[in-house]
Amino acid sequence: MRSAKLINNKVELIELEKPSLDIKGAIIKVLGCGLCGSDLVKIKHATPETESKIVLGHEVVGVIEDINCKNDTFKKGDIVALGHHYPCFNCEFCKNKSYSMCKTFKKSNIFPCGFSQYIKVDENHLKYTVYKMSDKLKDDEKAFLEPLSCCIRAVRRCGFEYDKDNSKSSALVVGLGSIGLLMLKALKAFSVEAYGFDISQKRQEFAKNQGFEFDKNKKYDAVFLTAGNSKAIKTALDYVIDGGKILVFASVEDDISGFSNNEIYYRELSIIASYSPSVEDLKLSSELLNNNMVNVKNLSTIYSLDNLSKAIDDSFNNRIFKAYIKI
Ligand SMILES: [Zn+2]
Ligand SMILES: [Zn+2]
Q1: Which ligand gives the minimal distance to the CA of 94?
Q2: pTM tops 0.90
Q3: Could you tell me what percent of the chain has a pLDDT over 90?
Q4: Do the domain assignments include residue 154?
Q5: Distance between CA atoms of residues 262 and 252, nearest Å
């Protein structure tokens, strides 16, 4: 079977043996996989030492081809979407709900990678990170399960609860790439009054067409940083209310110019980060997508596996909004 691998800083398609069920779990025939911003960061920062360990692609949609563990939820032929990491629920991090910091979480992954014709998942994936998806959704829409769950976690980390009325709270998302727009949609699903800002007029327009405006005269209870640019920190500080929250949701290139200590102190700001989803977030994400409560139609540009390099190039150069690789 074919599978993508980073070799000498280039993404190559290599021939691998189809994975077999040598553990308890399932083989999934991959229908497609979304290209995540974190894949781009991994590619950009790969070194000869790290690149062999890099797993590209985790926003997988597929069909269960074979399953060998007792599981009432899934059977052969089910169409599923999935996340790649699960926590142990036992360690100090897990007890503290810092699931993304759990060693098991960091170690667990799909095999060999999302940009493959087949992947193997284990029984804990089936238990915690794999979800059946509605046949009313197109495959590229199903692939938003994991990215939307990341946004849900960020919204929750900011203190918003799904079953509460949050309509008196406002939030500004700075950076309106695919994850920024998804964050806006997650905030809206949580009933938060959501606004978006991007330095790119094109992206600002795109968000506006999806129903999200920017009000430069307003201050916001929370600002979500999804821009991946340290200049956005200033925007966040300009628009957050005193005593408000800034949620950090992206890495930046130059990590030196950061938050101003005194501004955080005198304005009593809370700086919170959110990195990767927990199991509850994946579950809510599947419900919101399957019940059409978050609409992710027409956000993706579809590429074949042969054109994976072009999808990566187009994403690096902001030519597209979100790439989905059809396998
Ligand atoms: Zn992702
Ligand atoms: Zn743990």
Answers
A1: 2
A2: yes
A3: 87
A4: no
A5: 21
